[in-house]
Design a protein that fits this description.
Strand order of the largest sheet: 1-2-3-4-6-5
CATH superfamily: Histidine kinase-like ATPase, C-terminal domain
Number of helices: 3
CATH class: Alpha Beta
Radius of gyration: 15 Å
Strand content: 25-35%
CATH architecture: 2-Layer Sandwich
Shape: globular
Helix content: 25-40%
Number of strands: 6
Largest sheet: 6 strands, antiparallel
Length: 145
Amino acid sequence: MKPPNRPSPTDYQAVIRSPPETVDDAHDFLNDVWAQHPDVTAEERMACETILSELVTNVIQNNPHREIFCDVRVRITPGEVVIETSDTGDEAPPPQPTADMPEQQAEHGRGLPLIYLLADDVQHRWQDARNIWRVTRVRATEPPQ
């Protein structure tokens, strides 16, 4: 994966192709973004890393039969971090924001409920044969003490 494209001081873009790339490439992308934004707190980073990891993992795991592309865009402003993905995977089922976590022994099903717990707004649509996700996390207005 190439270093993130930076179309503006607040926007970053990357394309993850699977195979051969994996969710680790999404983490590498975010590490490059964080290097440009030391103002993003550790808590905000953890939440955003988990959100992006779950989005990318879902599309890779649900499309093992073919190559997929996942365009990732991250926008960082003083008030929020927005993660947008657009993937060529199969159409995702409509998200259910009130979904409960699966039972402790379950091997799947935690991703979307976890995203809803960490995000302030989650939007999904199917458009032009792509899943488009837009996940917003409001940033802390006061620096940590």
